[in-house]
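Internal tracking record. Fields below are filled automatically when a chain is submitted to the structure queue. Please do not edit lines marked as system-generated. If the sequence contains nonstandard residues, flag them in the REMARKS field before resubmitting.
Queue: standard
Priority: normal
Entity type: single polypeptide chain
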Amino acid sequence: MPSAVPRGQPQTYPNRRVYPNLEEHLSIKTSCFAHYHDVHHDDLPAKLKECSEYLAKWPADKVLNMWRAGEPEAVLETAVRYMSGCTTFKVNPEGALFMLDAFYDPEYNKRDYVGDVASQSAMARAHSCAAHAHYQKFKASDEERISYTADERHYRRRQTLEVGYGQPAHTSLGFALHHASESARLGHVSAIVLRVGFTAREIGESLGVDLTEMTKRAKKHRPLWRAVEDRLDELHAEARQALQSAERDPSEYICSAEGCSTWSASRASLRLCSGKCPQDLKPRYCSKQCQVKVRPHLVVSVAL
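SYSTEM-GENERATED OUTPUT FOLLOWS
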């Protein structure tokens, strides 16, 4: 088993208030720790300053000492640093997963296991973090995948050993779905939970899978599908409100594709969307090319 302190131990920057990958650290922490309703993108400079001051106050040695003392929040903080590459040698999702095993793998290291003392909130955020780490591996480039496979061989996590090193991207997405659903089951629907769910939904739709009944019938990942469905309902309601509030000439019809200015005086001359969006929200396009270019029509307004 590798050392309890993952490779790429966080570095400290004495008397320094600017950290590499600081914005990524803030983004990941927000997308994993906050409920998506509480994600706001205002006053970014102030938030970055606050984040920098926090990192200066809690350098790696202090955080790791808290972790060794059995503090779940220290495990979460270290995992975010590995995922972001902030105060670490590199972006390291496998190192983050190695840390997070302390929440839900009793065999990980009995001395450092925190699953028996972690609050429900901490456990839910741990699942969101794990979903993010696996999602990073799912989205990785070929070059990144080579690096991540080397990390898998170093950490030798039990989960990785069971499926084998260097698995294809869909394996990571499957793990991300599990953790996203667990986070939702525990009442924490973060931005990354929705991003993982919507990614799977889009892949399913592209393969012709009818996902409209998934929330009702699916046994696997049901909390996640319910969260996605709830968010879709919110997006549809917001879109209807926007349509009601918009001031436009009903006699003018324009292609819905962004950047396309094709205009028609006849609604029937534009193609009606053939997707699964609600009938009253279906956009119209001047061509099949424009329709394909902008699908899906509704996107998740959450940040990673």
